């Protein structure tokens, strides 16, 4: 019998933590996806399960569960795989690893319960604050505390990977950082930098405000601190997907990664540029000077570069794979790709949709054209292509490869997996295209009742009813796709029998390896310092002027002034009054 060499055989202990993380992620996907269907049908008036007053609660749960819980639990699982596999060494202390997993779970529980309080009378809390949770919305303190625990859990996870790498470096002083580890570490570095913004926002302002320690906050300041974190977080979701496109797609295509140095440059660029662009979410905020917005726009346009490089490198690697498999011609090599493999097809379709999502992002990023699309359904279309497909579909597709690695079992039904990923692609084509169009003629986002009385939207092409029908149909197909995915994963894990035919735990080799790039590329300290300097340049003046105009806690407000004013002379007088 041939020796099986799957991940679970190499790292049985780590495999258990990663399985737990992925299952937390899948659970969030299932609940969050179901809530998405409720909203999609509600807004389009196709079917209404909830009163409109509860729409914000449902929307908050949908957003938080999908963009925070689903994505980040998957990330910590897959980065643990990446670091241990590419360094060929386990984590230092598995109890520590379980520790951060437990902390993230506890945080999720607190956040989840406080949101649930918005619709369950027995829970005396609410947190209808959307996943962007900046003031003037206010949540129960448990929401903020839970969020902090979750984020600190991710910080510790990063520390776990860093110290695994430090230990490896001691044994291998002259070697280049293996690519998957390089990707995990650079991603964590910009995550540390950017989550400082949300940490300050919560610990200095939102939590004390929600606890009643301070009476008011400066809304523009908490918004700005949120977006300081809120833009980089989108790349925090994207980087594990990129890692999978660079390390798994070429391999599944039957070839090698076109260029390891180019991949490193891409991750360095994300480390440097992810944070100083957050103001592109605030183009319409009054109180921030146009000049600062212009700087954010310029940085954003530079930030297109690493994604355009990725498009080139990943497609070139796929083409190399296809040609190894006998593919020929300018485009007919595409036919030689392994389209029956759900892991491959899901990731390739995710990449294809991201090309469209990237374009709508470029449009968002234009300072003047943003006025047309901001706060409209267009933006929702944009992020369902990016986080909702590039990331979500890649994660689901990759699971068809990873779950066998982590369980030692074959996928219960691979053909169903193929149907599932294609269904996602079709559903999202309907939904996101219709949302983009709807936004162009002004249909707003974030509302249960998009129709206003005495006012009608006039689409240049098509009708509102037709657009609504496409959104509802798309949402239904997407939800069906989620359930097919979950069913397949559950039956694989609890049903399937262990198999010896699980492929070895490896990732793609390279056509051009790390030795083709200068060693400075691996100098993480240098790139982090540059990132910090750019953040200071982009944010110090805007923050100073926001605080100057609106104070730390709102205009003219001294937070430490007690709300009951005690005037000493009055006290003296009253004391005198009772004296004989
Ligand atoms: Fe964005 C709003 C600009 C990327 C997520 N974005 C959002 C929001 C979310 C989000 C969630 O400048 C809403 C926030 C809210 O609630 O208010 N975004 C951009 C730009 C990019 C971008 C310039 N966004 C993302 C990614 C996200 C994401 C990635 C999640 C993961 N976005 C904005 C702006 C706003 C915004 C404004 C504010 C809008 C407003 O007014 O509120 C860029 O990073 C995009 C670069 C991407 C490309 C595409 C490259 C193509 C590739 C595909 C290769 C193909 C393959 C497959 C591999 C240039 C890499 C080939 C297949 C074969 C078969 C051959
Ligand atoms: Cu952004």
TrEMBL record:
Residues 22-494 form the Cytochrome oxidase subunit I profile domain. The chain crosses the membrane at residues 20-41, 61-84, 96-120, 140-162, 182-206, 226-249, 261-281, 301-322, 343-363, 383-403, 415-435, 471-491, 526-547. Belongs to the heme-copper respiratory oxidase family. It is a multi-pass membrane protein. This is Cytochrome c oxidase subunit 1. One of its GO terms (biological process) is aerobic respiration. The lineage of its organism: Archaea, Methanobacteriati, Methanobacteriota, Stenosarchaea group, Halobacteria. Keywords: Electron transport, Heme, Iron, Membrane, Metal-binding, Respiratory chain, Transmembrane, Transmembrane helix, Transport. GO terms for cellular component: membrane. InterPro entries: Ba3-like_Oxidase_I, Cyt_c_oxase-like_su1_dom, Cyt_c_oxase-like_su1_sf, Cyt_C_Oxase_1, Cyt_c_Oxase_su1_BS. GO terms for molecular function: cytochrome-c oxidase activity; heme binding. It is found in: Membrane. It comes from Natrinema hispanicum. Pfam families: COX1.
């Amino acid at each position: 019998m041939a020796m099986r060499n799957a991940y679970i055989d190499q790292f049985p202990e780590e495999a258990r933590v990663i399985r737990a993380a992925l299952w937390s992620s899948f659970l969030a996907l299932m609940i969050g996806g179901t809530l998405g269907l409720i909203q999609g049908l509600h807004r389009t008036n196709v079917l209404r399960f909830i009163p409109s007053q509860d729409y914000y609660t449902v929307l908050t749960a949908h957003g938080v569960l999908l963009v925070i819980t689903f994505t980040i639990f998957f990330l910590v699982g897959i980065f643990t795989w990446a670091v241990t596999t590419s360094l060929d060494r386990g984590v230092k202390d598995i109890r520590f690893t379980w520790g951060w997993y437990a902390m993230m779970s506890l945080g999720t529980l607190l956040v989840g319960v406080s949101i649930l309080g918005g619709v369950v009378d027995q829970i005396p809390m609410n947190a209808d604050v959307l996943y962007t949770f900046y003031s003037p919305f206010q949540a129960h303190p448990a929401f903020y505390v839970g969020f902090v625990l979750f984020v600190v859990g991710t910080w510790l996870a990063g520390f776990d990977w860093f110290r695994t790498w430090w230990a490896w470096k001691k044994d291998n002083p002259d070697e280049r950082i293996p690519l998957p580890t390089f990707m995990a570490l650079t991603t964590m570095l910009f995550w540390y930098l950017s989550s400082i913004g949300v940490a300050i926002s919560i610990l200095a302002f939102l939590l004390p405000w929600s606890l009643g320690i301070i009476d008011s906050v400066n809304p523009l300041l908490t918004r700005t601190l949120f977006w300081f974190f809120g833009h980089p977080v989108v790349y925090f979701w994207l980087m594990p997907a990129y890692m999978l496109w660079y390390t798994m797609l070429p391999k599944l295509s039957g070839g090698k990664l076109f260029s390891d140095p180019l991949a490193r440059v891409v991750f360095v660029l994300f480390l440097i540029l992810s944070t100083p662009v957050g103001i592109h979410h605030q183009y319409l905020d009054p109180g921030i000077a146009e000049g600062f917005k212009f700087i954010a726009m310029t940085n954003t346009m530079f930030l297109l570069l690493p994604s355009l490089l990725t498009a080139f490198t990943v497609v070139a690697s796929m083409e190399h794979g296809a040609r190894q498999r006998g593919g020929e011609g300018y485009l007919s090599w595409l036919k030689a790709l392994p389209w029956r493999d759900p892991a491959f097809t899901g990731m390739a379709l995710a990449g294809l949709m991201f090309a469209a999502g990237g374009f709508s992002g470029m449009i968002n990023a234009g300072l003047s054209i943003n006025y047309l699309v901001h706060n409209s359904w267009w933006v929702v279309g944009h992020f369902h292509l990016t986080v909702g497909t590039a990331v979500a579909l890649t994660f689901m597709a990759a699971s068809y490869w990873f779950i066998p690695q982590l369980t030692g079992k074959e996928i219960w039904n691979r053909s169903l997996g193929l149907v599932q990923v294609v269904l996602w692609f079709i559903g999202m084509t309907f939904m996101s295209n219709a949302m983009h169009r709807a936004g162009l003629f002004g249909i707003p986002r974030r509302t249960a009742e998009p129709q206003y009385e005495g006012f009608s939207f006039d689409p240049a092409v098509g009708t509102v009813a037709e657009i609504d029908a496409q959104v509802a149909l798309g949402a239904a197909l997407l939800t069906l796709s989620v359930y097919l995915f979950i069913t397949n994963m559950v039956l694989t894990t609890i049903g399937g029998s262990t198999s010896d035919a699980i492929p070895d735990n490896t990732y793609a080799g390279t056509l051009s390896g790390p030795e083709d790039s200068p060693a400075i590329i691996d100098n993480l300290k240098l790139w982090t310092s540059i990132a910090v300097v750019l953040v200071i340049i982009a944010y110090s003046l805007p923050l100073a002027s926001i605080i100057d105009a609106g104070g730390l806690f709102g205009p003219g407000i001294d937070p430490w002034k007690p709300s009951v004013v005690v005037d000493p002379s009055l006290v003296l007088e009253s004391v005198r009054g009772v004296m004989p």
